[in-house]
UniProtKB/TrEMBL annotation:
It is found in: Membrane. GO terms for cellular component: membrane. Residues 32-476 form the Major facilitator superfamily (MFS) profile domain. This is Drug resistance transporter, EmrB/QacA subfamily. Its main location: membrane. One of its GO terms (molecular function) is transmembrane transporter activity.
Length: 478
């Protein structure tokens, strides 16, 4: 988290007196931070660790195509996107500590189910349950942090929470490589003891933080956005296999269009909208959301492509792949914590976002131009480090810009909406890259498909310049 984000939290996040005086904490604030950090660690570790393990999962389920396997990633991203806002608002009605523990329990149980999966279908369903647990853990952990720390220490607590999550993400590729060396199921088993310990300690130590009397979010709206994103992803993934004009693909796009249109109609007309359209009247928030969408789509494709390239084109082991990828995620918290805030203060948020876009695209360009049939570890590491620096500049800055422009009452909801857009775009990015790869017959066709995919992702990433200029830069100039 950047310094600007931290200042924004100090100014904007001010839980009401009911939160500050709720319950008698049996844990110190630092102990609460340690407990709730488990949630962000599990969620972030899972994002990278599964990508590294995907080729090994494919070896066991030999009848599964890349399109089928992509749903192990996409089902999680789609469910997380749709449920993050829903569970975040639903949890506001109930005890934050119990809601957090429920999320940890669900994630832990779902991880065990993933480890026991006997088919891709069962694994996908279990991943949806994992996403539901993660969507419940994330907003409630923030609520517990803010209730436990005094106002002057909240920014530092959230910054530490974010850094711990970034460190977990950085360890993901390496941990995945080590665990997959034994068996891919260990990438899910590892979550179980961590989750069990967090449940026991959390039950004994977490302070009681009661909920608020707020309107219940619409389950129908959550279903609409889930089906819309899911149908769109399905249609993109199946387009090459079935044909763009096939009945199934056309039906998928039709379902996506109808569902998302109905969701938009609900948001515009409902007295209790799932996503308040007034949020998008705030120009910086709109700009952050519009930049986040293409950037996250390219990010999702990048995560999948890197692991697949090194293991399926070069034949690297999962461990070697994890070692090559690890420097990228490691650069994210380093860049975010040490440099992003200072650069924003000196050059402005729009300039930092622009630099992040350029560096991310440059990393992909290195892969697209230098990677070929012969292994080239320096090019992989150079590309992934540029990408990591770009992500460290862009993601936290967009979150700070988007949330910081909102009134205090909308901070939590606005952050949830941006994260929802981010996760939905991740799924769509993976679907696009899978469609680009198709089913190449020869090695040369496979290499050409990867390179074409990276150039397309570069174009998608650079599209973020437009909303960055129109909504973020111009606002800053006023």
């Amino acid at each position: 988290m950047s310094e600007v984000e931290a200042e924004t939290i100090d100014l904007v996040v001010e839980p009401d007196a009911r939160l500050r005086s709720a319950g008698v904490a049996t844990a110190t604030p630092r102990q609460v931070l340690a407990i709730v950090s488990v949630g962000i660690c599990l969620a972030n570790l899972d994002l990278f660790i599964v990508n590294v393990g995907l080729p090994n999962i494919a070896q066991e389920f030999r009848g599964a195509s890349l399109e089928d396997l992509s749903w192990i990633l996409n089902a999680y991203a789609i469910a997380y996107a749709a449920l993050l806002v829903f569970f975040g608002r639903l949890a506001e009605r109930h005890s934050r500590n119990l809601s957090f523990l429920l999320g940890v329990a669900l994630f832990t149980a779902a991880s065990a189910a993933c480890a026991l999966a006997s088919s891709v279908e069962f694994l996908v369903v279990s991943r949806v349950a994992q996403a539901a647990g993660a969507a419940l853990m994330t907003p409630t952990s923030i609520g517990l942090l803010l209730a436990s720390f005094p106002p002057e220490q909240r920014a530092g607590a959230v910054r530490t929470w974010t850094a711990i999550g970034g460190l977990a993400a950085a360890l993901g590729p390496l941990a995945g490589g080590v665990l997959v060396t034994f068996d891919w199921r260990w990438i899910f088993i590892v979550n179980v003891p961590i989750g069990v310990v967090a449940l026991i300690v959390g039950w004994l130590k977490l302070p009681e933080v009661p909920g608020h009397d707020v309107p219940r979010p619409s389950s129908w709206a959550a279903l609409l956005v889930t089906s819309g994103i899911g149908a769109l992803t399905f249609a993109i993934v199946k387009a090459n296999d079935w044909g763009w004009s096939s009945r199934g693909v056309v039906l998928g796009f039709a379902v996506a269009t109808v569902s998302l249109a109905a969701f938009a109609r609900h948001c515009l007309r409902s007295r209790n909208p799932f996503v308040d359209p007034a949020l998008f009247a705030v120009r910086p928030f709109t700009g952050a959301s519009l930049v986040m969408a293409p950037y996250s789509a390219a990010f999702g494709a990048m995560l999948l492509s890197c692991a697949l390239w090194e293991q399926t084109v070069w034949g690297w082991s999962a461990l070697k792949t994890g070692l090559a990828i690890a420097p990228g995620p490691l650069m994210v918290p380093i860049t975010s914590l040490l440099f992003a805030g200072r650069l924003i203060a000196r050059f402005g948020a729009a300039a930092v976002v622009s630099a992040g876009i350029v560096l991310f695209a440059a990393g992909l360009a290195i892969w697209a131009t230098l990677l070929g049939a012969d292994p080239n570890a320096p090019a992989v590491v150079a590309g992934v480090m540029l990408i990591g620096i770009g992500v460290g500049l862009t993601f936290p800055t967009l979150m700070g810009v988007g949330a910081g422009a909102l009134p205090p009452s909308s901070f939590a909801t606005g952050s949830g909406v941006i994260n929802m857009i981010r996760q939905a775009a991740l799924a769509i990015g993976v679907a696009i890259f899978v469609a680009i790869l198709a089913t190449p017959v020869s090695m040369s066709e496979r290499i050409a498909a990867f390179q074409r995919g990276w150039w397309i992702m570069i174009a998608i990433t650079l599209a973020g310049f437009v909303p960055n200029y129109l909504f973020i830069r111009r606002k800053a100039e006023r």
